[in-house]
Structure formats: structure tokens, C-alpha cells
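Section 5: illustrative case.
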């Protein structure tokens, strides 16, 4: 007899939607790749990809656009997780692009390599002929996400134009592209930061240690606590460093990713803290996104996100 009281939890619904997206894209495109930084969103995507194709291995490589200004804990975790899953790790290096003259290193106190990721990313997409790149962007991150689709079209120059977005009716994705074009695919489009943490707890996923409270040398700039240990943030003489108990909500480029004061040492404590906050992840942690409300949209149009 068929049951009529079968209900899915919110996480089950989100998981099922994301798994459907992975399977659909793997079926429609020749050379997908998963953008993987070692952060919580990309780790959740890896778990979803595992489930989507189990018991077969994940049928595409993962790629990290490496700024060279990383938190050491994250790089160690990235390499270990890729090895555990047996997936091919492609590294697109910003430092290699600088050394070859493809991009110019920014100068000054607020210099960041975030925008420099665009060239090595597009070079790697062209070199490996990737036609679909899975990204971990969520709908609650920033305003430009509301203009995109799950399958987001990029032209032959890797650029995004909101006016070129194709219609998506229900879960019918437009996957038609010409040679030289590609798409970015966002399986986490309907997830929030709190959903991510709830899923990490449910699936018992390991995370880099800097997501949890620890003592760190930091300094304050424009209301953000930037890392003083790696030396990537170009601390000035008028920006004294001090020790604080902090954690990171995201693990991007160490030169512009801020920590938050926190005593949350466990998943339950982090989830309680996230549920109570009224400041978005990027608003609280990303210095380069504070330059203007259009900062993220500009980088999308240039080809990175």
C-alpha cells in the first residue's frame, strides 16, 4: 500500500534538487568541472556530487583557482579531501599568471588578488575545454545572484551579461551553448548559509579548523579583523596587531577575508551563532565587496563568478 504521509525535510528537498542538477549537467555537457576551494560550500557540493553518482566515482575533476594568498589550514584540507575522494585536482595559479605577465600584481595597502583570479580561471577553462563549471554561490550571498539562473550562460570571452540569461521553467535547464562558450552551474542556488551548516552537521562533514573559534593574531581595518599571521594583508604601521578569539565564516583570499569574534567551537555553537546574526556572510567578512554594492556583479561580468 502506498503511504500518503511521506514528507521530506527542508534539507532533503534541497539535497534532492542539487543532486538532480549535478546529474542533469553531467548528462548534458562533455567536460564539467567543480570549482573547489576547500571551503564549506564547495565541501557540501562535493558531498552532493558523491551522492549523485554513487557508487560510481565523481565523473569530473575539481579545480581550485589558487591566489597564492591562502590560509595554510585550508590548502592542507583541500589536498587531503581531494586525495580521499580520488578526484583529479586542477590548480589554476594566480602566481603563475603574474610570473608569465598575464596579470599585474596590485599595489598598495588594500591590494588583493581576488580580481586577478579571472585570468587563470578562464585560461584553465580554455586549456581543459571545460564547458560547465559548478560553483558554490548561494542565493543569500549578494544581490547579483538574483539576476542569475541555476545554469548561468557565459559568452566566448567568459563574460556574464544579465540580459543574456535564458529562461528556466521549473527544473528545465537551458544547456545549449556554442563552441567556446560555457556555463556556470549553481547547485546551491536555493540554499542559505544556515542550510549549509545544518547539512554539514547532518552529514558529519569535516571542515578546515579555522571555521571554528581559535586564537589568532589579527588587526582591524575598516571594521574587519584581518589576518596578521600570513602577512598577505599588507598591514600598515598604524594598524597594530593583537590576539583575539575568532573564527572565519568563509575562507577566501587571506588578504581581504575578515574573521569574526566568536567563541563557537562546535557545530551546534556555530549554527546557533549563524541563526542569530543579522549581517550577511560577505558583508561581515569580505573587504573587497564593501567597495560598492556592484562589486560582485562587476566581477561576474568580467568572468570570475
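Designed sequence:
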Amino acid at each position: 500500500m502506498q503511504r500518503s504521509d511521506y514528507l521530506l525535510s527542508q534539507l532533503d528537498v534541497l539535497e534532492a534538487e542539487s543532486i538532480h542538477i549535478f546529474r542533469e549537467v553531467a548528462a548534458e555537457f562533455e567536460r564539467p568541472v567543480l570549482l573547489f576551494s576547500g571551503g564549506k560550500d564547495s565541501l557540501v557540493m562535493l558531498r552532493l556530487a558523491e551522492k549523485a553518482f554513487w557508487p560510481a566515482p565523481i565523473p569530473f575533476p575539481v579545480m581550485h583557482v589558487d591566489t597564492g594568498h591562502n590560509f595554510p589550514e585550508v590548502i592542507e584540507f583541500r589536498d587531503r579531501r581531494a586525495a580521499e575522494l580520488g578526484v583529479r585536482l586542477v590548480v589554476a595559479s594566480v602566481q603563475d599568471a603574474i610570473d608569465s605577465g598575464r596579470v599585474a600584481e596590485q599595489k598598495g595597502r588594500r591590494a588583493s588578488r581576488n580580481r586577478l583570479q579571472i585570468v587563470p580561471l578562464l585560461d584553465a577553462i580554455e586549456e581543459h575545454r571545460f564547458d560547465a563549471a559548478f560553483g558554490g554561490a548561494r542565493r543569500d550571498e549578494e544581490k547579483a545572484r538574483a539576476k542569475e539562473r541555476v545554469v548561468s550562460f557565459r559568452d566566448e570571452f567568459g563574460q556574464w551579461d544579465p540580459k543574456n540569461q535564458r529562461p528556466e521553467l521549473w527544473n528545465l535547464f537551458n544547456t545549449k551553448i556554442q563552441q567556446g562558450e560555457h556555463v556556470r552551474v549553481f547547485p546551491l542556488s536555493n540554499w542559505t548559509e544556515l542550510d549549509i551548516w545544518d547539512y554539514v552537521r547532518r552529514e558529519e562533514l569535516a571542515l578546515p579548523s579555522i571555521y571554528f573559534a581559535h586564537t589568532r593574531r589579527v588587526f582591524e581595518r575598516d571594521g574587519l579583523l584581518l589576518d596578521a599571521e600570513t602577512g598577505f594583508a599588507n598591514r600598515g604601521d598604524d594598524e597594530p596587531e593583537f590576539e583575539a578569539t575568532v573564527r572565519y565564516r568563509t575562507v577566501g583570499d587571506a588578504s581581504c577575508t575578515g574573521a569574526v569574534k566568536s567563541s563557537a567551537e562546535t557545530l551546534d555553537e556555530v549554527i546557533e551563532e549563524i541563526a542569530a546574526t543579522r549581517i550577511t556572510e560577505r558583508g561581515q567578512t569580505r573587504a573587497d565587496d564593501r567597495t560598492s554594492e556592484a562589486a560582485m556583479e562587476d566581477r561576474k561580468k568580467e568572468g570570475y563568478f
